[in-house]
Amino acid sequence: MQVLYFAWVRQKVGVGAEEVAPPPDVADVAGLMRWLSGRSPGHAAAFANAGAIRAAVNQDFAAPDRRLSPGDEVAFFPPVTGG
Amino acid sequence: MQVLYFAWVRQKVGVGAEEVAPPPDVADVAGLMRWLSGRSPGHAAAFANAGAIRAAVNQDFAAPDRRLSPGDEVAFFPPVTGG
Amino acid sequence: MTTAAAPGVRVQEAPFDLSAESAALTAGREDVGAVASFVGLCRADDGLAALVLEHYPGMTERAIAGIAAEACERWPLTGCTVVHRVGRLRPGEPIVLVLTASPHRAAALESCAFLIDWLKTGAPFWKREEFTDGRGERWVEAKAEDDAAAARWAARAGSAAA
Amino acid sequence: MTTAAAPGVRVQEAPFDLSAESAALTAGREDVGAVASFVGLCRADDGLAALVLEHYPGMTERAIAGIAAEACERWPLTGCTVVHRVGRLRPGEPIVLVLTASPHRAAALESCAFLIDWLKTGAPFWKREEFTDGRGERWVEAKAEDDAAAARWAARAGSAAA
After folding, report:
1. Which of B69, B72, C72, D90 is deepest in the core (most CB within 10 A)?
2. Starting from the edge strand earliest in sequence, which strands make up the sheet with B60-62, in order?
3. Does residue B79 sit at the C interface (CB-CB below 8 Å)?
4. Is this prediction's ipTM beyond 0.95?
């Protein structure tokens, strides 16, 4: 599973993208965030306030209860500030 | 008094501008329109439907009861269609 | 603090350049966050060969300057430009340009819409249509929908400006 | 009959040219009566030295294309273009361009406002501010007023599009 990070989420995690293989009980976006938090102090800092983070699955905005499949591209980032 | 005509008012009158000296009893814009109507068949045709004509006095939009002075610049034209 | 440049108002036969006019509104400034523009063009409706636009030299420029000054009072604009062409214009050609600049996008967008709605109804221009099929010519009549578009600004602000 | 060209969507570091983009929307057409544009620029607020914009390559272009396609459904547009810059932008530099073309001015003006309101809230971009006084950097937070501006379009149309 490819995971991408943007903006301050990327800065805290320390990388912009990583390939991960979460265990089968990581079933949705919220579960993936909890599991990623345990990977490093940077991940823990990035996901400390899960409510401040938005997600996309396969390049569509996704809610925390969005189910995941092994081949998904999952991205985490702050609320967008375009324009 | 300088009188200007624009758009189809100008076409019907036959000139774009003329110097006129109406008699003292021509006191306002509506009176000037009636008096101008008598100057030629073209004027009469132009002013036949007074309600279709707008006026300006000294380059400000003016209502039919606007009082006139000898040195005024008075213009007659259809409702504007800009943009 | 919004320092507004005096509105730029021109009536001309020549075309205008959107990029150049926009650049002039922002040149040397770092307080402009938004530039909105509207360009009205001549459409080839119903066999139209050309539009011929006439204005009242002097009054037309004054009327537009008055509307532009009102826009600068109602919205925090750093500048605005109105260029209106006259003469014979063929389908596809630009007729009118409205540009508004502001620190904030809503002010730029709303004042741009306000100005073009007023130009349609309040500025002394007259349009004559010429046709491709020898039908001769026809003066364009004022449209009720344009009056309604202009009136909504007065209704929103309680303004009675022309 | 409004024939809409496919929306043009680009995310790039390079500047854009307003006149060229506008000309591309009207080239060879005689059914375009109105072109509205919005350009967002970098302001030098509060000692800002530069904005650094980041996007999600692929998703960002798709999200904008989706928003632009929705605008083409809601309004009778003949075309629309969105160009959004990324990378380091200094005060005075343009950041984003929205251009909409239509036979009618209300459609062009409203869809242009709709698109920039949605870009502020719905497109995957993130802005970091760098300052002149050595304060370091700060990520710009989403603004409630931007959410409100975007929400009014959903309220008016009963739409729930993102």
Report:
1. C72
2. B17-19, B2-5, B73-77, B54-57, B60-62
3. yes
4. no
